What does this fold into?
Amino acid sequence: MSTDLTRLTAAELAGKIHAKEISAVEAARAHLDRIAAVDGGENGVHAFLHVAGESAIASAELVDAGIAAGTGPASSLAGVPLALKDVFTTRDMPTTCGSKILEGWQPPYDATVTARLRAAGVTILGKTNMDEFAMGSSTEHSAYGVTRNPWDRSRVPGGSGGGSAASLAAFEAPLAIGTDTGGSIRQPAAFTGTVGVKPTYGGVSRYGLVACASSLDQAGPCARTVLDAALLHEVIGGHDPLDSTSIDAPVPSVVAAARRGAEGDLSGLKVGVVRELGGEGYEPGVRTAYDASLRRLEKLGADLVEVSCPHFEYAMAAYYLILPSEVSSNLARFDAMRYGMRSTVSSGGGVASAEEVMAATREAGFGPEVKRRIILGTYALSSGYYDAYYGQAQKIRTLISRDFEAAFTQADVLVSPTTPTVPFPIGDKIDDPLAMYLNDLATIPTNLAGTAGMSVPSGLSDGLPTGLQIMAPALGEALMYRVGAAFEAARDADDGGPLIARVPEVAP
Ligand code: GLN
It folds into this structure.
């Protein structure tokens, strides 16, 4: 075969499969071979925790049969391979959430996202590595080893969805699914030169998404192009009666918006430059890329207006009270009785109590970051402290939402750098929780407000990728995709091709 199928976009692959130029099975095999070549070994990417070769081929065969019989394809992405973050339940694959406590657990049901992917004929290649229960910014908090950044394998790919993002940058999959509670889709996208979208809260079902912080968690698409992310967004998005926070409204027309954006005209649009993001605390290389991005948006015809969101300064503090509080409640379900591992306890010849078994299991099963957050959250919710911590944090959350509302009266979308730094070396921040938390300085406000955000590649700083964050009001995804696609097209044109084409070849 002359073309390397792993280098094609999802849209290109789908086009070829549906035109019968290639089969879905060939597409699946090419990506499974690529995974076999680059994912394993000492210095491998290690994006995957589980590769589901047989079921991937079986699913692709069904798509091919449907196309041959004239009854398919099932969707615009039928036959396209995808990597699924290991936080979504899958009835035929293990689901670990990157935690020892769920080692060997195979859920009895599919998440809605999983079910929609299957119904659309998307080929699920396997489950991707992540920080334990989605807490972290580097994938180093996985109980199953770190994922390496394909741009520089001594560096982290970001987190918590580092496996999903790295699988895209290593050409192991053209599409992936992530979840974003404070930045876990957008920050890894920025770190790997890929595209990641956090939809409006309630835009994609959380049913079967193992909860981190339920009021912040949101599933979303990851891809190498804005159009591919849009195609995936329309497959997974939309109302689900199984999730009580799911929005009962049509999915925004993001595919049409991405196509329109690619025409490269943003005249008449107001882009808000957030004064509080992108200045102090951001690396010089990131700021240089950001300045160039702003000039590029201007060249596309957008009007840049400076907006101020004064309460963003308190977003991190509020987030690190609200998230741990919800974590301390959500993770109570891992009680050694219902799921996964159960430690044996010797109780001096007698029978160990349920509490002893639970304590021993949680001691052995949870990693240090998860424990830290459970303890922090339990404290923040305890009587006498509740109002001072959790109550105050909720008030800040309201003020942040109001900052967004005010900003969106002055601008159609807002922008900032996605992250304060480029990908950092493995091990650099693992012993400094605060330094790790600061990765999400620019992404957290969007989660607190429940609005939409995306990261698109904005260029390299010393050979490492940076991202531009585009933020939109709730259900304002169409405009966000339009701006993202216009920016991407302009950047690619100025640079002689997509950023991702410059990722060094990951030698097997
Ligand atoms: N890095 C952030 C945290 O550790 C975000 C995590 C996420 O979005 N799941 O909480």
In short: The domain at 2-311+401-502 is CATH 3.90.1300.10 (Amidase signature (AS) enzymes).
